[in-house]
Amino acid sequence: MITIRTTDVEFHGGRPRTAPLTWGQEVIWDLVRDWDDARSYAVLTRWLPIPLLLSVGDVLECVAELLRRHEALRTMYRPTTSGDATQEVLGSGTLPVELCDRPTDDDTDWTTIVTDCLVRAAQVGFDHDKELPIRFSVIMKDGIPILLSFAVSHLSADFVAADLLVADLTALLRARVDGRPAPGARTALQPADLAALENRPEGQLLTIEAARFIRRQLDRAHPGMLPTRAQPATPRFFRGQLESDAVALAVGPAARRHRSSPSALLLAVTSALMRCVCPGDAFPVDIMQGNRTLPELAGTVCTLSQSIPTVVDLTAGTFAALTEHCAAVLAQARSHGRHRHRVVAALADEAGVGSAAHFNDIWSHLPGRPTRPPATLEELTARTADSAFSWPERVDLKNKALFMGVRGTAERVHLSLFADTALLPPGDIRAFLDTFERTTVTLAYQDVPLAQVAAWYAESRTRYADVDHG
Predict the structure, then answer these.
(1) What is the CA radius of gyration of the chain?
(2) Is the dihedral of CA 341, 345, 347, 353 positive or negative?
(3) In which domain, by residue range, is 118 found?
(4) Where a domain ends, among 174, 195, 216?
(5) Distance CA 370, CA 71 (A)
(6) Tens of pLDDT along 139-153?
(7) Which residue, among 231, 228, 219, 322, has the nearest Cα to 269 in the 3D structure?
(8) Which residues contact 468 (CB under 8 A, 6 or more apart)?
(9) Which CATH number goes with the domain that contains 183?
(10) pLDDT digits (tens, 9 = 90+) for 86-103
(11) Domain tally for the chain?
């Protein structure tokens, strides 16, 4: 029988201090404060293998070193009377760590054990003023550590930062096995230092410049750009997900054919499909930015990602022209990505332009993405037989009319479309993702007219018209 117990990890050597929230932390804090389900939603999970020959004590010492290096992991978030918060960095303390031990005679598979550990760690959310923002589980076989999993609050890490933690832990554990000193920590800003910079005049200037850009975008937007097109389902918001090896193989070559980046190519495919949905010649889209373009932020463990409002023009005559336009939109978004969201959110509220779409491409930033597809379109199209569609979520309320996410692993893209069924009925969501895959795969080998994208989408809508109830 699997046994579960806890032990404490002590950490020392850090500098205690208090600071305001960073701009990225403010975004998550406001989300957690204002949305009832956000406490469990705003949690990121990861797992990694533990090299053989290490004891539980070795693993726990690596966890302690990780806490010493990254102030975001030993931070309490203290609410203020105004509804805001401050970050309090602890110089020393303890962190409870779960020890999950499966005996040899237990046949529970490791995937189930890891999943259960991650669910336990994530589902209750964090009490940020009472506990540290990370939870670890050491998964063992008869007392021998083999896997390490963790859940970290989005207040302390975004997707890139969570992957940085995995990389750090992997390096620390490997050094232990090899009998080498621990590798040096990356040179990077800590969250409290970043908050200080953001509150200086140069930080305020970033927000002023972003506000000017956003005002220009809002001047082009209006509520009718994403209109009601159908009777909404119950619950109202559906998320469809298409997992595809074929898209992972196609994006790089398709982007090269268009002399563009993977992100621009993916935004262009999204925009080509939005031409089939939007009645006008543009659509509003908030684009998520990782905000790690500066060297001192590349290795920062903190939540840096923020979205910025843009408007994508849909009047391009060819897919190549649309891709070029999307590359320009992404460049503008990137140059204004760091700003104080509370200021620009007030601008959007004043403008009254209604809900926008949202685009978040995480996959293009993953290392090890494939770069060479099969030799022919027919061969890659055959790989779509391995794609899998599902409905992971259905909820009554969402803060965006449409949320297009691209994530997954390097070898298998997860295309995720969360939409208001008044805008896209369930069958249209499925058709959107299927056409996304078909278009991307074809673009790896040949040009695709925008009219062809529309024809494929219409064909898929007919095919999936009977899934209006999911």
Answers:
(1) 23
(2) positive
(3) 3-195
(4) 195
(5) 34
(6) 999 999 999 999 999
(7) 322
(8) 233, 425, 426, 427
(9) 3.30.559.10
(10) 999 999 999 999 999 999
(11) 2
